[in-house]
Write a structure and sequence with these properties.
The protein has a domain of 224 residues. Helices cover 42% and strands 16% of the residues. The chain contains 13 helices and 13 strands. The strands form four sheets. The protein has a five-stranded antiparallel sheet with strand order 7-12-11-9-10, with helices on one face. It has a four-stranded antiparallel sheet with strand order 3-2-13-8. It is elongated, with a radius of gyration of 23 Å. The relative contact order is 0.15.
Length: 323
């Protein structure tokens, strides 16, 4: 049996909740000007996105066919129930909802890019930190000299300089399959955190509606000084997580009981955290303005360097680096 090549990171079952009457979804691409109508089959899709290269070189698409596709099929019954006269979910349905929502967060390009960036920056910081230790530097230098991997005229100071400029002088990459594997290992952590949080489902008014994006699950933290952090950890006690279900319903999750943000604020968060595209069932000028306003976020770093360094120091991963 031939494995499908078109892998939807935004399931068609989910997109169907944001379709126009004629079966299209409006795509507002950041920086692209006017929006366009597309069929769901051509939206939120990347060729072979979940294909993994096995140790023997074989290409494996079982993540798409055996895991994600069955999860995608869970959504329509949940969607129908949440839009029925009695939208209360039983425990089995709640678990199915959290399963779907967790993978909606883990499977998107933005999350994958963020974790790739996290792995790269963490690795570079650890390497640079080791060069700050005279003992570690000397030991590494002697091993490499013994193995003949550095020329005789190459001094220990030369090696230290190379290490400290590794991200400037070399193109450093991280195996994308490993990033995907690490993301999948986060599933039980995020699922359990969500299961223990307060869930609030909010309905929009008749004159307003929720939008969604290519990165629909948005963790957000507001600090006392007014600063905000997007993509924050699910375990942060002040995190607010939003997940648009349809134009008329959005789910929110909190560690403590609180009022959800306004519909306008929620849409701004959704637009900000989208990777490239914002979606709606209709054309609206204000969504075009959102796509223009947050165009700059496409090229923004997904990981804050200073916050990452601080976290690694606190965790003991950087022993020779100051906060």
């Amino acid at each position: 049996m031939t494995s499908p090549k078109r892998h939807h990171f935004l399931p068609i079952t989910y997109q169907n909740g944001f379709l126009s009457d004629d079966g299209f979804i409006w795509v507002y691409e950041k920086g692209a000007g006017e929006p366009r109508e597309q069929k769901p089959k051509n939206t939120g899709v990347i060729s072979n996105y979940y294909k993994v290269t096995m140790p023997d070189g074989a290409q494996d698409s079982s993540l798409e066919t055996d895991i994600l596709s069955p999860i995608d099929s869970l959504w329509k019954p949940l969607y129908d129930k949440l839009h029925s006269a009695d939208p209360r979910l039983n425990q089995e349905e709640k678990d199915a909802f959290l399963l779907f929502m967790t993978f909606m967060y883990l499977r998107t390009p933005r999350t994958r890019k963020a974790n790739n960036e996290l792995a790269l920056k963490s690795g570079i910081l650890v390497i640079k930190d080791s060069a700050q230790s005279p003992e570690m530097l000397k030991k590494t230098y002697e091993v490499l000299r013994h193995q003949g991997k550095i020329p005789e005229e190459y001094t220990m100071e030369d090696m230290k300089e190379m290490i400290m400029n590794v991200d400037k002088d070399f193109k450093v990459t991280f195996n994308d399959d490993i990033v995907l594997e690490c993301l999948l290992k986060l599933f039980p952590v995020i699922f359990t955190l969500l299961k223990n949080m307060y869930a609030v489902f909010v309905c929009s008014g008749k004159s307003q509606h929720f939008i969604t994006s290519d990165n629909p699950v948005v963790p957000f933290v507001r600090f006392p000084d007014g600063q905000a952090l997007f993509g924050a950890g699910f375990g942060d006690e002040n995190v607010e997580i939003s997940f648009p279900i349809s134009p008329t319903i959005c789910a929110f999750f909190f560690h403590h009981k609180r009022n959800p943000p306004s519909l306008e604020e929620t849409n701004h968060r959704t637009a900000f955290c989208s990777d490239k595209e914002i979606y709606s069932f209709c054309f609206e000028k204000w969504i075009v303005e959102l796509a223009t306003e947050y165009e700059y976020t496409k090229s923004m770093a997904k990981v804050d360097d200073e916050e990452l360094k601080k976290m690694l120091v606190e965790q003991g991963a950087l022993k020779n680096t100051q906060k």
